[in-house]
Amino acid sequence: MDRYDSRSRSSTRSRRSPQRDHPYDRNSSRNKRYEDDDLEVVPDNSIKVSATSDVTALSQQISDSCLNNDPHTLLTIGNNSINQAVKGIAVANAELNKRNLQLTFQPAFRDENRTRPRIAFYLSTSRYRQDDLHEDESDSTQLTVAGQSKIKPVAGAIAGRIRENTYVVATAVGVDAVSNAVLAAGNARLYLESEGLDVKVLPAFTKIEKNGQSLNALRFICLSERI
């Protein structure tokens, strides 16, 4: 699994963090402490995303870096920070589609202790194709990720379908659910590394119906990539 290194972005697969058996800690006070204590110097080719980052401004930063052929890495700490990053990427992707570009991300753990919600989002662009939106999801595996979802089973489900060359569409509603989806994708990458496979994620906004109500949600299309 990729481990973020602020010194270089030349190879996102050259540094791997070891597996840990601890479950993801969703304790909000601990997440807040991580945000307060994070005093690292942010490299020029990275963007630090906080829990209060403005999504519109963030998406513009992301778009600008992509249009300059230098997609910046997003550095996050805490569930709220991760949520803002995903929303920023989704907005940026919608704008880049108008320029025939598609934006995906690959999550990498920034800490050897994978119980800490410290994620680096490595961004990449490719030529946009309408088919890549996967609007016909009949051949996909659908997952619903909740705030209480266990990370490892979700990660295992994603990895299993990627091995079968089937893409996964995970839907999440709420900050904790979005963070869990990102962490699950990160763990799935770890599970697949030795098999020469990787996961890239295309995020998008969507709506779901629940108890007669229409809710805003985030949709994570998890696609296979050969290493």
UniProtKB/TrEMBL annotation:
Region described as Disordered: spans on this chain: 1-37
Domain of life: Eukaryota
Short name of one Pfam family: SpoVS
Residue ranges with Basic and acidic residues bias: 18-35
GO molecular function, one term: nucleic acid binding
PANTHER family referenced in this protein's UniProt entry, alphabetically: STAGE V SPORULATION PROTEIN S
Record-given protein name: Uncharacterized protein
